[in-house]
Design a protein that fits this description.
With 354 residues, this protein is of the alpha+beta class. Helix content is 21%, strand content 21%.
């Protein structure tokens, strides 16, 4: 197989970049403990007894659907001394599964898209591999299923800014990161005093100058397709910046919870580091009239981050949804995602895809 790709998400937005994420998205930290690790010398089986690795039941892979307010988190990835989504979630899992008291390794979670500090998620997806003995411990004497019991117990220990909505038995071949087909983000901006709401200040960017949403939308559409988005990505050694931008549009809704706001819908197979917020920054420059509608496409063609678009604040960004193929295509999708994207594997020109 070809070398793996780096899939990051935006500012984290890190998503599965081809590999789906890096540094903060490197798969190492997300992988489950090795179920075949050698036992300690004092507990190793005798030569004539079956190897524990051969007799222990395989770990059960669970899918977690979750949401969080990123305001008080230092991003997704676990970091020493910092409060992160991964750290809080893994600690909660270790508590309800009684990993410590049972002498088992703490669970490790793999996520679809690692988000940066301040970025929110409404439709995040993760998976965790759990030993059956731990699932049994979480269920206790309850007549609920193991997944129902785990969901209930997690609700009892997680803080209010992190919610697990569902715990499901993952289908064969499922990998939250590598099996994903696409990630969809929304970025919200308020540029009108009349619609400025202090209750939404943690997830809506306040912008002092009026924006031309139609011009921003026209500029956004020129970036659609499969391209090298190096001009909009924070460089990471060994990481590819080739992505397929499937949806990028701006609107100013007239009704609903986003009425009066300037809202971006951004969807791609994956996002490299800071990509979504850089795309938004370029759009804002167009919306203010400081740059021509053609400028974002010119940046894209230049493939250089220097002198490019400013990266906007993280708090206006929300991961809304992660999409997956049908169950019978999950494993094949994961293999495809792990294959490195090549420099010539791009569309001929920006805006090719409508």
């Amino acid at each position: 197989m070809s070398t793996t790709t780096d899939l990051g998400a935006d500012g984290a937005e890190h998503d599965a970049d081809a590999r789906p994420h890096d540094a903060d998205t490197a798969p190492g930290a997300d992988t489950a403990p090795d179920a075949n690790a050698a036992p300690d010398a004092d507990t190793a089986p005798d030569a004539d007894t079956p190897d524990a690795a051969d007799t222990a039941p395989p770990a059960v892979r669970l899918r977690l659907d979750l949401a969080y307010d990123g305001t008080a988190f230092a991003g997704w990835a676990r970091q020493p001394t910092l409060r992160t989504v991964q750290g809080v979630l893994e600690d909660a899992l270790a508590t309800v599964l009684r990993a410590g008291p049972l002498g088992r390794p703490a669970p490790r979670v793999t996520v679809a898209g690692r988000t940066d500090a301040g970025v929110h998620a409404r439709g995040q997806v993760a998976h965790v591999d759990v030993e059956p003995v731990l699932l049994h411990a979480a269920r206790g004497r309850s007549d609920r299923t193991a997944t129902q019991a785990l969901l209930s117990r997690l609700a009892g220990v997680l803080p209010p800014d992190l919610v697990v909505h569902r715990v499901l038995d993952a289908p064969a071949g499922f990998d939250a990161r590598f099996s994903a087909l696409r990630r969809r983000y929304t970025y919200r901006i308020c540029d009108d005093h009349e619609h400025r709401d202090p209750l939404t200040r943690t997830h809506v960017l306040w912008h002092r100058r009026p924006l031309d949403a139609e011009a921003m939308d026209s500029a956004a559409r020129t970036l659609l397709g499969r391209h090298d988005f190096a001009a909009f990505c924070k460089p990471r050694e060994g990481a590819t910046t080739i992505r397929t931008l499937e949806v990028f549009r701006w609107s100013r809704p007239t009704e609903g919870p986003d009425a009066g706001l300037v809202v971006a819908d951004v969807q791609a197979d994956a996002f490299c580091h800071s990509m979504v917020r850089a795309l938004v920054g370029a759009s804002v420059a167009v919306g203010e009239g400081r740059r021509a509608v053609t400028w974002p496409a010119e940046l894209l063609a230049g493939r250089r981050r220097e002198g490019g678009a400013a990266v906007v604040a993280a708090h206006g960004l929300t991961l809304e949804e992660v999409g997956y193929p049908s169950d019978d295509e999950l494993a094949a999708r994961a293999d495809q995602t792990r294959a490195r994207r090549q420099a010539d594997d791009v569309d001929a020109r920006p805006g090719c895809c409508g």
